[in-house]
């Protein structure tokens, strides 16, 4: 799978889990960043096909990064992630244009289903 994926989360263990799960599904071109500043820098310097974005980051709110992506990369699908999977969080990010929401801890099954729904995972893969 030749997709560039950006993952933004302030927890290294979450980044590692995401990378491991995505590797098992055949994704290899994965960029991991720990804060919003680095995420915006990566987005300005590289083309990505998909972004997984934590709502709560130490330096800025994930929704402000989502806003930036909507303005500058309107066709880039963003999946918001949070340990606080409240109805309000999910609804707010959907209303802002997110293409999905993953509750933490990340479930391999839910991640795979989300990628299938977004049309970026080959349904014939048995990962």
Structure description:
- With 127 residues, the chain is α/β, with parallel strands linked by helices.
- It has a single domain (4-55, 67-118), classed as Rossmann fold (3-Layer(aba) Sandwich), CATH 3.40.50.
- Helix content is 43%, strand content 19%.
- It is built from 5 helices and 5 strands.
- The chain has helices at 12-24, 36-45, 62-72, 87-95, 108-118, and strands spanning 4-8, 29-33, 50-54, 78-82, 100-103.
- It has a 5-stranded parallel sheet with strand order 2-1-3-4-5, with helices on both faces.
- The model has no long low-confidence stretch (mean pLDDT 94).
Layout of helices and strands, plus pairs?
Elements lengths: L3 E5 L3 H13 L4 E5 L2 H10 L4 E5 L7 H11 L5 E5 L4 H9 L4 E4 L4 H11 L9
Parallel strand pairs: 1-2, 1-3, 3-4, 4-5
Helix pairs in contact: 2-3
């Amino acid at each position: 799978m030749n997709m560039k994926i950006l993952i933004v989360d302030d927890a290294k263990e979450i980044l590692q889990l995401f990378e491991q799960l995505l590797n098992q599904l055949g994704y290899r071109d994965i960029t991991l960043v720990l804060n919003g500043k680095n995420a915006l820098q990566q987005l300005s310097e590289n083309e990505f096909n998909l972004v997984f974005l934590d709502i709560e980051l130490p330096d800025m709110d994930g929704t402000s990064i989502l806003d930036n992506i909507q303005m500058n990369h309107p066709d880039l699908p963003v999946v918001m992630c949070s340990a606080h999977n409240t109805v309000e969080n999910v609804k707010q990010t959907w209303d802002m244009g997110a293409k999905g929401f993953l509750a933490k801890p990340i479930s391999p099954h839910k991640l795979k289903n989300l990628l299938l729904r977004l049309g970026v995972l080959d349904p014939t893969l048995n990962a």
